Amino acid sequence: MLSSKVIHVDGVFLGTAIMCGSLNTLRFYATHESVRALHNACMPDFGALYAQVRSLFNRSRLLTPKVA
Fold it and tell me: Which domain of life does the protein's organism represent (predicted)?
């Protein structure tokens, strides 16, 4: 691991983007259940990775019923 960057949306910690030295890509380490489908996904840049994580998280919030 060369470096890492935390990914959070609306104050919710979703995971970490980890820079992989050998491939010069970012690998996502998911910590939140809503974005588990992207765990270990590799992307060339942080913007693309963040957009995918944010989209999946927001979609899961729309589909998850609210508990009163």
Answer: Bacteria
